[in-house]
Amino acid sequence: MNILLTSAGRRSYLVKYFKEAIEPLAGKLHVSNSTELCSSFKFADHTLVSPQIYDKEYIQVILSYCRKHKITLVIPLFDIDLLVLSRNKRVFLKNGITVLVSNAQIIELCNDKWLTYNFLTKNGFDTPKSYIEISLLKSDLDRNLIHYPLILKPRWGMGSIGVYRADNMEELLFFNKYIQKQINECYLKYESSLTPDNRVIFQKMIAGEEYGLDIINDLNTNYSGTFVKRKIAMRSGETDISELITNHRELEEIGKAISAKLKHIGNLDVDILVEDNKFKVLEFNARFGGGYPFTHAAGVNLPKAIIDWLQKNQTDHLKIKTANRIQFKSIEII
Amino acid sequence: MNILLTSAGRRSYLVKYFKEAIEPLAGKLHVSNSTELCSSFKFADHTLVSPQIYDKEYIQVILSYCRKHKITLVIPLFDIDLLVLSRNKRVFLKNGITVLVSNAQIIELCNDKWLTYNFLTKNGFDTPKSYIEISLLKSDLDRNLIHYPLILKPRWGMGSIGVYRADNMEELLFFNKYIQKQINECYLKYESSLTPDNRVIFQKMIAGEEYGLDIINDLNTNYSGTFVKRKIAMRSGETDISELITNHRELEEIGKAISAKLKHIGNLDVDILVEDNKFKVLEFNARFGGGYPFTHAAGVNLPKAIIDWLQKNQTDHLKIKTANRIQFKSIEII
C-alpha cells in the first residue's frame, strides 16, 4: 500500500508516523506540496511538487501521479486542499484510490466558521455567540445582548491570520475593514470568494482554558473515540505544551455527539473554550490538526488505525498508553 | 564546569548543545525558568523554577543557586533577563561566576529599537528610516520624505508582538493607540516603562528578502566571525527554513563592522532586509537568537567555543562544515 500526503508543508512528524505505519506492508510514503521548500519532503520516500491547489490542473496532476505510483490512499492536510479533493473523491475512487476526506458538504461546514456556528447552535452544542451581520451585532450591542471584548476573524480563516480583539466600536469598525484587506492579500481570498459579502465573523471572546479534541471516525463515519487535550501553552495559534487527559467524561460525550451529528471521516480536530465551567465548542478542522502529535505521543496511532480500516480489519491502535501526561513541542533542525 | 541557562523557555536545542559541550568536562547543565512548564527543562541535568525576572528577589535567587551548585557560567536567553543580569554582572563576578552578557549599556541599546536605530545611523550603517515622534513622521509624510507602507512596533518589542503594517493615516493613528494598549497587557510593559512617552516606533517597510546574522565576539569583545543565513520561510517572527551562506563578503563585512562598533560579548543576532540590492540593518538581539540552530546545524559550535574561551584556549569550533545548505525546522513531541 502506497500513501500520498498532500499539502504536507511543515508536518514532517506525520510523514514519519505514516512511514512507520506502512513499513510492515512494504509501502512507500509520498508527499506533495506546491513548493519543495518544506520540511515534510525530507522524510518522504518520494515527493511531488504539485501545482497550486486552485490551479486548474491540480486534480489531474495529483490523480496522474497516484496512478503512476500505484497510490491507493491520499490524505490531504490543508483546509483548501480538503475542499478541492473532497469535491473530486469519486474521480479518485473510480481509479481505485481512497481519499481520506469527508464529503464536500462537511468540509465546507468545517472551513466556514459561520456554517460551523449554525451547525453547533442548531444541534444544541454550546458555542460563543457569533454574528456575521455587523448591523445585527451593533443592534445587539446597543441592547446589551452582547458585550465586548469581541473576537473578529476571517470567516474562512486558518491559523491565526487576521484574528483581532475589539474592545470598543472604534476597534470593531477598524478591524472589520482591516481584515478584509488582509484576506485579499493572502490565500484566504480563495475560499472567502465563496461568500463575498460576509467574510468576517464576530464572536464573543472567551478568556478561559482551552482544550483540543481529536474526534475519530472510521472510514464509514462510525464513531471510534475522542481524545482530550488541555492546551497549556500556545504560540501563534499552535499548541506548544499540552496535557493528554484520559477519561474526561463530559468532553468525550461532546466528541461522541459531534461525531454522530457531523458524520465526518477520519480525524476531526476541535477547539473548545471554557467559561464558567461550561464547554464552548469553537472551531472544526476536518483533518489531522496541529495538536494530533500530542495524541500520537500518548500512544494513539491513527495512521495505523486507518491502514487497518482500509484492510477491513478491526484496529487496536486507538488507545492511550500514557495517562494524563504533559507533553512539550520540541524544535530540531534537519 | 557547571553552566546555568536562564529563561530557557522552549529552547531545548540550546540545552542539548551545551550539555554536549560540557560532557567532556564532566560538567552539569542547569536550566532556570519562571515556570516548570517549558521544554528546556526536559533536557537539563538540573532545573530551577526562578522568580519572575522583575521580582526583587530574582538576582539573589539566581546567585544563591549558582553558589550552591558551583556554577561558573550563566547564560541568559531572554531580552528582559539580559538587561537585569547585565546590571548585576559584577556581583556574580565577585563570586567567581561569569555571566555571558554584554554590558548593560549595550543590552539597552539592543533592546531599545530607537537606540539601535540611532546607533546604526550614527555609525553609517544602512537601515530603514524610522521615527519615534509621530508629529515629525506626519510632517515628513506631508512633505513626501517618507511613504507608506509603514511598520509600527513596540520600541521595546520582542518576537512579533504588536507589529502592524499601516497603509494610510487612519491605520497609522489606530495602531499607534492599539499597540500602546497591547504593551500594557503583556510583559513588554516592563522595559517600556523606561521610556513611557515614546513606546512605539514607526519604520519604513522593506518588502525584500530577509537575512539573519550571527555576529560572534569572544569574551573580551574581539571579533570572531559572522555567519550569514538567508531566511526562506518565516512563521510568527521565527525562521522555519533557512540557507546558511558561506563567503558572503558584503554581509560578513557588515557583521565585522557592527562587532567593532558595538563591542558586544558572545552572540549578536541581527536581522537584515534587502531593498534595491542594499542591505538594511534592522534589529539586534544580544543573545543566542532563534536562528542560531541553523548556524549550529551547519557545523559551528558556539557553546564549545565559549568553553574554550573560558579555559583561555584558542577555539576551532567556529567553522562552517556544510556550505550553502538549506535547513528546515522540524517539530517533535517530547
The first-level CATH class name of the largest domain in chain A: Alpha Beta
Radius of gyration from the alpha-carbon trace of chain A, in angstroms: 20 Å
At the fourth level of CATH, the homologous superfamily of the largest domain in chain A is ATP-grasp fold, B domain
Average residue pLDDT of chain A: 96
Domain ATP-grasp (chains A, B): 117-311
Keywords (chains A, B): ATP-binding, Nucleotide-binding
Pfam families (chains A, B): ATP-grasp_3 (PF02655), PylC-like_N (PF21360)
Protein name (chains A, B): ATP-grasp domain-containing protein
Describe this structure in words.
The structure is a homodimer of 334-residue chains. Helix content of chain A is 34%, strand content 28%. Chain A is built from twelve helices and 15 strands. Chain A has helices spanning 12-22, 58-68, 79-86, 89-94, 104-111, 113-122, 134-142, 169-184, 188-192, 249-262, 292-297, 302-310; strands at 2-6, 29-33, 46-49, 71-76, 98-99, 130-131, 150-154, 164-166, 200-204, 210-217, 223-235, 238-245, 266-275, 278-285, 325-333. In chain A, helix 3 (79-86) packs antiparallel against helix 5 (104-111) and helix 5 crosses helix 6 (113-122). Chains A and B meet through helix 8, strand 11, helix 11 and strand 15 of A and helix 8, strand 11, helix 11 and strand 15 of B.
Describe the structure concisely for a colleague.
Two copies of one chain form a homodimer. Chain A is of the alpha/beta class. The first copy, chain A, has three domains: about 1-100, Rossmann fold (3-Layer(aba) Sandwich), CATH 3.40.50; about 130-205, Dna Ligase, domain 1, CATH 3.30.1490; about 210-330, ATP-grasp fold, B domain (D-amino Acid Aminotransferase, Chain A, domain 1, 2-Layer Sandwich).
